[in-house]
Amino acid sequence: MIEILSPTELARARQTGALVAHILQTLKGRSAVGTNLLDLDRWAQAMITEAGALSCYVDYEPSFGRGPFGHYICTSVNDAVLHGLPYDYTLAGGDLLTLDLAVSLRGLAADSAISFIVGNSQPPESVAMINATESALSAGIAAAVPGARIGDISHAIGSVLRESGYPINTQFGGHGIGSTMHQDPHVPNTGRPGRGYTLRPGLLLALEPWVMVDTAELVTDADGWTLRSATGCQAAHSEHTIAITNDGAEILTLPKQAQP
């Protein structure tokens, strides 16, 4: 299903995006050395509930997972990159943490992810990888203009990731979003320009470049959810929900302090 939102629906989607951005930035600020992943999950639950929103994850039960996800946020640490199931783990200095959050407010969903390093240590390899995903995300957003195609976005993302030296996995990527978290079209993190669905004003997309240092192969944890690099190398993931408008792409999940 591909949804095209009306101006009224887009206004509601902006509110959802602002909430997602606020929760992620709040949790990033609380992600210090000694913070437990389960505390991050509880804080996410409290903020979602207080806002009158709904989690897109608690009852999420796709074919690739093991039963309902059962938590409010994905917390992926170091070699984990996607669908990180929160567990009893205390963050250490130098950990590369990815927080991925999707909520629904007044019937419309937004999805975003941020990767950052816990504590004062800033390993250059981790910084470079995070920067590459953020640059790829910016390139994909810049390519998301009315009349362009999904392949144009994928090509823009993939070009940055490839030039940065990272292998690219196409099994999981970006996606349409609207009244539900995951919709068509699929947006791979690499592709051929001029191919795929034509972008129209009112379309919402969640773009999410992610990479692992030296592999494109994933393995699934015993928890049935957390996806890790097959080689044990570190991974990073950046994501925004955007709306296609007559003037280009509008980022709905941009934190207030980062807004122009």
Automatic annotation (TrEMBL):
Residues that bind substrate, according to the entry? Answer: H83, H182
**SUPFAM superfamilies, per database record:** Creatinase/aminopeptidase
EC number(s): the record gives 3.4.11.18
Q: Name one GO cellular component term.
A: cytosol
Copy out the cofactor comment: Binds 2 divalent metal cations per subunit. Has a high-affinity and a low affinity metal-binding site. The true nature of the physiological cofactor is under debate. The enzyme is active with cobalt, zinc, manganese or divalent iron ions. Most likely, methionine aminopeptidases function as mononuclear Fe(2+)-metalloproteases under physiological conditions, and the catalytically relevant metal-binding site has been assigned to the histidine-containing high-affinity site.
tRNA processing as a keyword of this entry, yes or no, is no
Residue numbers binding a divalent metal cation 2: D111, H175, E208, E239
List the Pfam families.
Answer: Peptidase_M24 (PF00557)
From the UniProt record, list the reaction(s) this protein catalyses. Answer: Release of N-terminal amino acids, preferentially methionine, from peptides and arylamides
Q: Per the UniProt entry, what is one GO biological process?
A: proteolysis
Cofactors required? Co(2+); Zn(2+); Mn(2+); Fe(2+)
What is the superkingdom listed in this entry's lineage? Bacteria
Matches recorded under InterPro entries: Creatinase/aminopeptidase-like (IPR036005), Pept_M24 (IPR000994), Pept_M24_MAP (IPR001714), Pept_M24A_MAP1 (IPR002467)
Q: Domain Peptidase M24, which positions? A: 13-246
Binding residue positions for a divalent metal cation 1: D100, D111, E239
**Keywords on this record?**
Aminopeptidase, Hydrolase, Metal-binding, Protease
The GO terms describing molecular function are: initiator methionyl aminopeptidase activity; metal ion binding; metalloaminopeptidase activity
What is the role of this chain?
A: Removes the N-terminal methionine from nascent proteins. The N-terminal methionine is often cleaved when the second residue in the primary sequence is small and uncharged (Met-Ala-, Cys, Gly, Pro, Ser, Thr, or Val). Requires deformylation of the N(alpha)-formylated initiator methionine before it can be hydrolyzed.
Entry-linked NCBIfam families: met_pdase_I
Please give the PANTHER family that the UniProt record associates with this protein: METHIONINE AMINOPEPTIDASE (PTHR43330:SF27)
Give the quaternary structure.
Monomer.
User: What protein family is recorded?
Assistant: Belongs to the peptidase M24A family. Methionine aminopeptidase type 1 subfamily.
What this protein is called in its record is Methionine aminopeptidase
Q: Which organism is it from?
A: Sanguibacter gelidistatuariae
Q: Which gene encodes it?
A: map
